[in-house]
Amino acid sequence: MQLPGELLGMWGSEQPVSESEKVILPADTEFAKKLYSDGMGNDIHCQIVLAGAEKRSIHRPEVCLPAQGWTIKSGEVVPVKLSDGRLLDVMKLTVARPVTLNNGSQRELTTIFCYWFIGKNTTTPHHFIRLLKTNFDMLLHNINHRWAYVIINAPVLEGFVAGGKDLQTTTARIESAIAELAPKITPNQ
Questions:
Q1: 143 versus 37: which is more confidently predicted?
Q2: What pLDDT is stored for residue 57 in this prediction?
Q3: Is residue 1 part of a domain?
Q4: Which of 14, 15, 91, 144 is most buried, taking the most CB atoms under 10 A from its CB?
Q5: How many structural domains does the chain have?
Q6: DSSP structural state of residue 43
Q7: Exposure pattern of 3-37 as b/e (b: 16+ CB <10 Å)?
């Protein structure tokens, strides 16, 4: 449950757990949250949510993102080659929502949102496979996964800030962050 202090040469700062997360999720849910910044506004948000005894800590983001005002534009599983040579399948969502700019006008902000689930000696980008594996391993092998949910996301800031990255560059940065981060948090999987 430790995120590294640095990712892609950017320093990470601890982020607080939101009040809504504290209210909605069970009290034994654990969090690690950091914001990695390059100092020019091209930030990457990372978090790990670790389920406690009650399994409702972990859920599909396709449920909570729309509740937070995001519209899911697309979703696909993408393989990411990790820095240690392994491949990791992650779910990549492209989401958007309207934002009001300082001048009062509204624009659509796009964000790339990637996630995957980590269990005992297993990973998956699919919620339904996580549920199947949980039940299968519990019944047949007496393994009770304490699933973690890893999220890495960044806004596409082209046209919003000077030097803001476009969709392709933002996606590549997130995949590079996953390639660097995943071996550190799942070294043996």
A1: 37
A2: 66
A3: no
A4: 91
A5: 1
A6: -
A7: beeebeebebeeeeeeeebeeebeeebebbbbebe
